[in-house]
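Figure caption, in words: inputs first, then the predicted bound structure.
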Amino acid sequence: MRSQDHDRIYLSPPHLGRHELNYLHKAIEDNWVAPAGPNLTGFERDICEFTGAAHCVALTSGTAAIHLGLKLLGVGPGDEVLCPSFTFVATANPIVYLGASPVFIDSEAETWNLCPVRLREAIEDRIRRGQRPKALIIVHLYGMPCKLREILAIAAEFDIPLLEDAAEALGSRYDGQPLGTFGAVGVFSFNGNKILTTSGGGALVTNNADWDKKARFWATQAKDPAPYYQHSEIGYNYRLSNLLAGIGRGQMELLEDRVKRRREIYNWYQEHLNGLPGLSFGPTEPAGGRSNRWLTCVLLRPSETAVTPEQLRLHLETHNIESRPLWKPLHLQPLFAAAPMYGGAVCTNLFEQGLCLPSGTAMTDTDLKRVADAVKEMATASYN
Ligand SMILES: *Cc1c(COP(=O)(O)O)cnc(C)c1O
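Bound structure (pyridoxal-5'-phosphate present):
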């Protein structure tokens, strides 16, 4: 009965506003639940307006968007794709869908994202081995912009196209520009725990008009222009439904408010948990970066505290509070045990020391206090 447990504080549950139902109503009243439809077009327009991207294709998931995005960059069998190790598995799985293989790279300690120094090392080493990387995926984990200036310069120097996994970073910015618009292709997710949700959904953005057409074609079973069903290419059933896009339209109206609240939650925790031994907050915004602070993360340094993240997580559970370890690096996953990895100490440490605290925008200050009190209880108990 956990999902109906209203006393439980969840990590990042969906938070609907007032207008989602209007868009759904309209679609049903107009008998326009499929195919495509005005909500879908409107949702894509909303995303273009917010991000400044020229084109947007709404899809069934962020994973689908990464899959089509890599295909647009020409990734295919035998290719190698550079990818941060510290991310959710959905960043890397589509590399394998395409018959290519991932090459993993460590994080840097400031933003926790792809380390530019390790990136250069990896590119030079792969080229030396005769495997020129076909593409580079960058991720803005927990909404935190990666070191874009450095990374974009390296990608340009080696002429490697960039896919930007901004699944967690809708509403974050770098030099004032929305994340998702720095790569040749950008990807967003509207999964249930993201800053905005359509229950499940994703989007691909690009400034390339041909790629926009191609992505739509692949996402709807790659139908050749003929009156009958004819296919010359492999396609997918990846298009978002007009109903779910209606939820997305309602959610997009709330984006700036949601970013504001997530940032407030991060600051609130920081203020109220300040000074607990061994506990620190992260990641840190790089110069020019502004994070949506999707999830508030803490680190427990073993040199300064006996409390482990897992002990803290279990303690919060006894208070009916959900928390979660940081992403387990992909180079440590059994699935990717054989993949090349450059560096590894930084993201491994983050995984061993980190925990995500509940950060849903519907949380009240009373909820926040419940979490903070439970964290303090653990910290104090173990120091006495
Ligand atoms: C959520 C997420 C995805 C995948 O998005 P889905 O919509 O769940 O398929 C990809 N990358 C990252 C970093 C994510 O957090």
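The longest helix spans residues 365-383.
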